[in-house]
Design brief:
Length: 300
C-alpha cells in the first residue's frame, strides 16, 4: 500500500488539538483561487523552482532531456508545458533550487515518521492529521493510514474539503477522532466560480458525517470578495448549527503566503495584491457565527 505525499510537517499546532504531525497528500479536485498549496493539485510529482536558491551553475540545463523545458532567462526557470517532471534536473541541482515535489510512501513509512514525535502527542493531546490536497483523492491509502494510526494508539484527524465519494468519507470517519471540514461558499453558482466544483457533493457529505456522529469542526477560509460576505457566513453558520456533531466554526483569515508557490508553478495568481481582512471585519463575521449559538474562533 503506497500513497503520494508531498510533505510531512512536524510540530503543527493549527491542524487539530495539541502538537501534531500533518501528512500532506498529493492530488486535489478543487481549484480554489486562493489555494495555499497549489503544488498539491496534480496527483503526480512535480518539479518546483526556488529562484532564491539558484547559484547559476547550469547543471540542470545539462541534465534536462527535453529541449526547451528549462529556460535560464525565465523567472520560473521551468516551461511547464514541456516539462515531464522526470526529476533529473532536481537530482543534478546542488543547491536544491529545483525540487521534485511528491514522493511515494508506504503506510509503514509514514507511521514511522509520525511516531518520532509521540512524546509531544502524549503531553499535548496531539497526534496525526491527514491533509492535502485532498486525502479522499487517495482514499484507500488514507483509510489504511488512519487505521494504522488508530492501531498505534494515535489521535487521528482528517482535514478534508468534503469533495469525494460518500462511502470513502464514511469509512475514513470510522477511524478518526475529529474531522476538520472546509466549508467555503454556500451558493451553488458562486461555489463553481471560485472553487471549481459542485457544492452539493460537499454539503451532502457534511450532512452524512452528522449521521455517522463523528465530531466536526467547520473551517471557513475568509477571502475578501470571495467568501467573506455576511450572507455567505450566515448561511454557513445556519447549516453548521443544524448539525448535532458541529459546535465550532474556525474562521481562517486569508494571507498571501501562497502567492510565491503559484509563481514557482508558472500559474497566474488571480488574487494578486488582495489584502487580508482586518480585525474588525473578522470579528463582525465571528459575531454572525456566534449568533447561531456556535463557538467561533479567528485563526491567523
Amino acid at each position: 500500500m503506497k500513497g503520494l505525499v508531498f510533505d510531512i510537517q512536524r510540530f503543527s499546532i493549527h491542524d487539530g488539538p495539541g502538537i501534531r504531525t500533518t501528512v500532506f497528500f498529493k492530488g486535489c479536485p478543487l481549484r480554489c483561487q486562493w489555494c495555499h498549496n497549489p503544488e498539491s493539485w496534480l496527483g503526480k510529482p512535480q518539479v518546483l523552482f526556488y529562484a532564491n536558491k539558484c547559484i547559476g551553475c547550469g547543471g540542470c540545463l545539462k541534465a534536462c532531456p527535453i529541449k526547451g523545458a528549462l529556460d535560464k532567462q525565465s523567472e520560473t526557470r521551468i516551461n511547464h508545458k514541456l516539462c515531464t517532471d522526470c526529476g533529473l534536473c532536481a537530482e543534478a541541482c546542488p543547491a536544491e533550487a529545483l525540487v521534485l515535489c511528491g514522493r511515494e510512501m508506504t503506510v509503514e513509512e509514514v507511521i514511522e515518521e509520525v511516531e518520532k514525535d509521540r512524546p509531544f502527542y502524549e503531553t499535548s493531546g496531539g497526534g496525526m492529521t491527514l491533509s492535502g490536497g485532498e486525502p479522499l483523492m487517495q482514499a484507500e491509502f488514507a483509510i489504511a493510514l488512519l487505521k494504522a494510526g488508530k492501531s498505534a494508539g494515535l489521535h487521528t484527524v482528517l482535514d478534508t474539503s468534503g469533495y469525494g465519494k460518500a462511502e470513502h468519507l464514511r469509512e475514513a470517519a470510522r477511524h478518526v477522532d475529529l474531522v476538520l471540514f472546509d466549508l467555503k461558499v454556500m451558493d451553488a453558482a458562486r461555489h463553481r466560480e471560485v472553487v471549481g466544483v459542485e457544492a452539493r457533493v460537499i454539503h451532502d457529505n457534511l450532512r452524512m458525517l452528522a449521521e455517522v456522529g463523528v465530531p466536526v469542526i467547520i473551517r471557513v477560509p475568509v477571502i475578501p470578495t470571495r467568501t467573506d460576505s455576511a450572507e455567505n457566513l450566515r448561511a454557513i453558520a445556519e447549516m453548521a448549527a443544524s448539525l448535532p456533531n458541529v459546535r465550532q466554526v474556525d474562521l481562517m483569515r486569508y494571507n498571501r503566503l501562497g502567492e510565491s508557490k503559484w509563481q514557482r508553478l508558472g500559474r497566474p495568481y488571480e488574487l494578486n495584491g488582495l489584502q487580508p481582512p482586518d480585525d474588525e471585519g473578522m470579528n463582525r463575521l465571528k459575531a454572525i457565527v456566534e449568533a447561531e449559538k456556535l463557538e467561533a474562533t479567528v485563526q491567523g
